[in-house]
Amino acid sequence: QVQLVESGGGSVQAGGSLRLSCVVSVSGRTFSMYPMGWFRQAPGKEREFVATISRTGAATYYADSVKGRFTISRDNAKNTVYLQMNNLKAEDTAVYYCAAPKEPLRTAQSMAAIPTDHYWGQGTQVTVSS
Predict the structure, then answer these.
(1) How would residue 1 be classed by pLDDT, with cut points 50, 70 and 90?
(2) Cα dihedral sign for 43, 17, 121, 118?
(3) Residue 118 and residue 104: Cα distance in Å, rounded?
(4) Integer distance in angstroms from the first to the last C-alpha of the chain?
(5) Which of 47, 70, 101, 125 could form a disulfide with 41 if both were Cys (CB 3.0 to 4.6 A apart)?
(6) How many other C-beta atoms can be found within 10 angstroms of the C-beta atom of residue 40?
């Protein structure tokens, strides 16, 4: 199984920054085999795509709402994926989830387009005050 643990959430003022981390434990496979992603869910809304990253980090994809403000990255030596969030807005308030595809041969692009069949972390709350 794949286990994911997010951290780094908290409460910040609008315009502030946070860096989320997701530590991934993989049994039988290696972390570098998986493209990874971040998704978020606000109260009363569906879970939505935020960003995904390819196995090597060479390709990244972002939701239009976060382009230019958020950066996804990964450190395969540490089995960790990050989400650097700058210039946070009240609309960014949500529970943020780290995700790995159940099928590691999926692409980061497909994860962004079709956010199903993932392993999910427990989520970390991000609250932005305006």
Answers:
(1) confident
(2) positive
(3) 10
(4) 40
(5) 47
(6) 23
Tokens of 57: 């980090």
User: In DSSP terms, which residues pair with 36 in a beta bridge?
Assistant: 53
DSSP state of 26: E
Pick from 23, 51, 31, 19: which is nearest to 115 by CA? 51
Output the 3-class SS for 80-94. Answer: EEEEEECCCCHHHCE
Per residue in 79-118, pLDDT (tens digit) is 999 999 999 999 999 999 999 999 999 999 999 988 889 9
Counting every residue written for the chain, the total comes to 130
CB 44 within 8 A of CB 23: no
